[in-house]
Amino acid sequence: MLHVRSIWNGAISFGLVSIPIKLVNATESHSISFRQIHTEDGGRIRYRKVCELDDREVSQAEIGKGYEDADGTIIPITDEDLAHLPLPTAKTIEIVAFVPADRIDPLQMDAAYYLAAGGAPAAKPYTLLREALKRSQKVAIAKFALRGKERLGMLRVVGDAIAMHGLLWPDEVREPEGVAPDTRVTVNDKELDLADALMDTLGEIDLEELHDEYREALEEVVAAKAAGEAPPEAPEPARAGKVLDLMAALEKSVRAAKESRGEQPEEAADVRRLPQRKTARAAPKQTAGKKSTATTKKTAAKKTAASAKKSTSKTAQGAKKTTAKSTAKNAAKSTEKKTPEKKTTSRKRTA
Question: SUPFAM superfamilies, per this entry (predicted)?
Answer without folding.
Answer: SPOC domain-like
